[in-house]
Each structure stands twice: as structure tokens, then as C-alpha cells.
Amino acid sequence: MAAKLVATATPGFQLSASPASGQASSSTTATTTVTVTPQNGFSSTVTLGCSGLPAGVSCKFTPASVTPNGAAVTASLSISVASMAGAGSAGGQGAAHSGAILFAASQQPILALTMLLGCAGACFAAFAGARCLPRPRLVLASCSLGALILVGCGGGSSSGSAGSSGSSSGSSSSSSGSSSSGGTQPSTVTIQITGSAANVVTSSASYTLTING
Questions:
Q1: 80 close to 24: Cβ distance less than 8 angstroms
Q2: What is the pLDDT along the chain (213 residues), one digit of tens a residue?
Q3: Interior angle at CA 20, CA 19 and CA 26, nearest 5
Q4: Which of 1, 77, 82 is nearest to 32 (CA)?
Q5: For the chain, what is the total number of helices (H) and then of strands (E)?
Q6: CA distance 64 to 81
Q7: Could you give the CA distance from residue 54 to residue 211 in angstroms, rounded to a whole number?
């Protein structure tokens, strides 16, 4: 009498996501419903997770694990995008640079006054010691002229720096406006929603995420 072989199907489960695509940004979260459907009498606990997440993107399941006792069960998946960091670093560096230039320009009158007083002191010392320079008045006049030129250049530099700062500020505003009007181009990634059970049974489903800047 021939033996009769009976094939036994292996218990398992299938994962699906509805909807299978969504959009997220730093201010909005993408949500979808994940369904775990048991097959061939599967009744073990399934732990849910995500793979293929780009930097700054995270996912959260509620609940984190489900147990299909003879019927399909669901969990809610939320996908969030972290805020972009370092957006104001360039502007901060530009402001610091402009501030340093303006500070240096503001010191020009002090340098000019120091120069003038030094020249006057030198001439006074020469007169007092009867060792006057050949042309002390000419030296004093040259020092005075140099001091005036230094003050004038300082004022011009300060104005130019202020103008450059304003121009930079305008460029920054203009680029900010362009960024606001054009915006960052969205990027699309495919995330794998995974499920695993204690008896090494696994399954996955794809989810398409569009990240808006």
C-alpha cells in the first residue's frame, strides 16, 4: 500500500500599506495604515520597522508590534522629517565679517589723532632740546596732512563697508526671496516597511515618500 504524502503550507503573513505613498516635510507628517494579514494559521507577534530611511527621516508605528490571531490587524505609521539645520550660518558669518570691518574703520580717527600728537610731540622735543629738525613746520604740516588723509580714508572705508554690507544684505534678501519663491526641489525615496516574527518569518512592503523642502 503506497504512502500518501500531504503537503503542509508554512505559516506566514503579508504586509501592505494604504496609501502606498505620501508627502512629508519639517512641518507635515506622512501617515499610512499598515495591514498584517496572516496566512496558513500564522498567529505570532509581528514587530514592525522601517529600512532605507534617508538622513533626517524617522518612522514611528502605533502600536510597534501586532499579533494577528486568525484575522488581519493594522498599525498606524507616521513618517516625519527633521528640520534643516545651519540655515543661518552663512548670514551670521557675513554679519560678523561686516561688523569687524566697521569696527576697524571706526578706529581710524583714533589712529589719526595719535599720529598727530606724536608728530607734535617730536617737534616740541626738538625745539626744547635746541636740536630742531631742519624744517619742523614742514614736518608738522606733513603729519597733519597725513592725519587728515587717514581720517578721510577711514570715513570712506566706513561708508564703503556700510554700502557693501547693505549690498550684501540686499543680495541675501534677494536670494532669500528666490528661495522662498522657488523653494527646494522635492526628493522622492522608497522606504521598506518590514515585519518580523520570532520564528524568523519576515515580510515587507514598499512605501514611496516625497520629501518637500
A1: yes
A2: 555 666 678 999 999 999 999 999 999 999 999 999 999 999 999 999 999 999 999 999 999 999 999 899 999 999 999 975 333 434 444 444 555 555 555 666 666 666 666 656 555 555 555 454 455 555 556 656 655 665 565 555 444 444 444 444 444 444 444 444 456 789 999 999 999 998 788 999 999 999 997
A3: 85
A4: 77
A5: 3, 9
A6: 19
A7: 10
The gap from C-alpha 106 to its chain's centroid, in whole angstroms, comes to 34
Query: Quick count: other Cβ atoms within 10 Å of Cβ 69?
Result: 10
Note the helical H segments in the chain: 89-106, 108-128, 136-182
What interhelical angle do 89-106 and 108-128 show, nearest 10? 20
- Give the 3-state secondary structure of residue 164: helix
Residue 140, all three cell numbers: 608738522
* pTM: predicted TM-score of the whole model, two decimal places: 0.54
